[in-house]
């Protein structure tokens, strides 16, 4: 049996056939059983199976694109649960993007941030204020609310404004480490929320605790984006951009600098790593992804208020990073997806099932013990179990392996003994 399993792991054809059959069966199951949450989750699980195959990265991206762009929306579109499925998929994409941003700060740079939701709030209010009549209270020029076409510009505006706030957060915490850093970032997140909650006087900018309602929906080619199935594709494009950018940063010079600072600041500084620049870039880049998704969240919900940006949300995103594996891009994607689906679908469906049993008289469960109301306790237990038995997360971070002989040879070539178009690191990765 073990020999057969080892042969399967090395055989790409067998993996491809199994994956094709699995995707076909789960897609057909979702198409025929439109209200089956199990079929929906099993189809999403095909992406996890795809990750463990031996296909080239380009092949994996193409297959994942076919599943996410075509199969998932099409197979779920023939039933009443279509928009609810797309709502879950959209929120999964939003939380994955935020978790990847926090992973840069916590997982790669080693800077514990408990106020990361503040950047999400900044992005949401950046669009919410100008996409409603609220901006008329303090803007001496212009006509508000802005049209839905401005949404696409505000994705970039929210990105840059959140990055600016990331730098503003990074400046006072450059000399703070460990628990003190966590306290400072926690305070920053709460200050931002309280400011938005009280910024309705003496000049009404955010409308305070009442929030901003009737946010203008995005518009493209005369079509208003008001359904989750439409926002699904917007989130998917931003998520692909986020994953690509984070992967490029991970193995770049700045990415290696983040990891060096995470391991030992003194040693990193001794090796020439600029601590101030490196930390500020981590805060700014991580915050920018959250700011973009904040703009999308405000447009999707059509309502923004301070209660959506509490400390509990920051902790939830941090748990996603820890659960998946700090510093691991695939791990963070899996951790965010598991947490979001567990919260929005699994626990909700279990609660509905138990309520039906209770209504039918099979047995009675106290309302306070329903799974949907005990989700925080369940998340806490999961975190404790993983801290005890799998502290590195679901998919731990993997460092690239280099061939020492090739690196030595490449260093000689770089010094002028021989000529080559490739760098030593590029050659070592090919071996």
Can you characterise this structure?
- Residues 408-431 are annotated as: Disordered.
- With 431 residues, the chain is mostly helical.
- The protein folds into three domains: 1-80, no CATH class; 99-338, no CATH class; 403-431, no CATH class.
- The chain contains 17 helices and four strands.
- β2 (219-220) and β3 (223-224) form a beta hairpin.
- It starts with a helix and ends with a helix.
- The mean pLDDT is 83.
Strand and helix layout:
Layout: H1 2-10, H2 12-32, H3 37-51, H4 57-76, H5 82-108, H6 117-130, H7 151-170, H8 178-198, E1 212-213, E2 219-220, E3 223-224, H9 228-250, H10 253-263, H11 265-270, H12 275-301, E4 303-304, H13 311-324, H14 329-360, H15 375-389, H16 404-414, H17 424-430
Antiparallel strand pairs: 1-4, 2-3
Helix pairs in contact: 2-3, 2-4, 3-4, 3-14, 5-9, 5-12, 5-13, 5-14, 6-7, 6-8, 6-12, 7-12, 9-12, 10-12, 13-14, 16-17
């Amino acid at each position: 049996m073990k020999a057969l399993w080892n042969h399967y792991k090395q055989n790409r054809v067998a993996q491809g056939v199994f994956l094709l059959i699995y995707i076909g069966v789960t897609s057909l199951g979702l198409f025929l059983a439109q209200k089956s949450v199990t079929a929906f989750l099993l189809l999403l699980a095909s992406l996890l199976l795809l990750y463990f195959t031996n296909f080239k990265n380009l092949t994996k991206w193409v297959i994942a694109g076919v599943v996410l762009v075509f199969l998932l929306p099409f197979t779920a579109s023939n039933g009443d649960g279509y928009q609810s499925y797309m709502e879950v998929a959209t929120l999964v994409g939003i939380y994955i993007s935020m978790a990847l941003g926090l992973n840069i700060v916590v997982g790669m740079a080693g800077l514990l941030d408990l106020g990361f939701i503040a950047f999400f709030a900044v992005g949401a209010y950046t669009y919410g204020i100008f996409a409603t009549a609220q901006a008329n209270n303090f803007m001496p020029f212009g006509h508000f609310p802005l049209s839905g076409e401005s949404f696409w510009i505000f994705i970039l505006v929210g990105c840059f404004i959140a990055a600016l706030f990331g730098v503003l957060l990074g400046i006072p915490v450059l000399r703070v480490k460990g628990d003190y850093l966590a306290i400072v970032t926690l305070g920053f997140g709460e200050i931002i929320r309280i400011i938005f909650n009280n910024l309705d006087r003496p000049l009404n900018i955010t409308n305070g605790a009442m929030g901003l309602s009737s946010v203008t929906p995005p518009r493209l080619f005369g079509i208003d984006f008001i359904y989750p199935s439409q926002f699904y594709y917007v989130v998917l494009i931003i998520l692909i951009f986020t994953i690509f950018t984070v992967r490029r940063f991970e193995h770049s010079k700045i990415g290696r600098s983040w990891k060096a600072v995470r391991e030992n600041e003194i040693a990193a500084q001794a090796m020439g790593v600029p601590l101030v620049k490196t930390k500020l870039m981590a805060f700014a880049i991580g915050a920018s992804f959250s700011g973009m998704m904040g703009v999308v969240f405000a447009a999707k919900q059509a309502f923004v208020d301070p209660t959506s940006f509490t400390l509990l949300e920051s902790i939830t995103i941090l748990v996603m990073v820890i659960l998946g594996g700090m510093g691991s891009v695939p791990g963070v994607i899996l951790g965010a997806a598991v947490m979001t689906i567990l919260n929005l679908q699994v626990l909700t469906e279990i609660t509905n099932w138990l309520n039906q049993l209770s209504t039918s008289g099979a047995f009675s469960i106290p309302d306070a013990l329903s799974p949907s109301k005990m989700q925080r306790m369940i998340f806490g237990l999961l975190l404790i179990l993983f801290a005890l038995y799998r502290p590195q997360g679901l998919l731990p971070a993997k460092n690239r392996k280099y061939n020492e002989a090739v690196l030595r040879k490449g260093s000689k070539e770089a010094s002028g003994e021989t000529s080559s178009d490739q760098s030593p690191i590029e050659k070592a990765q090919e071996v």
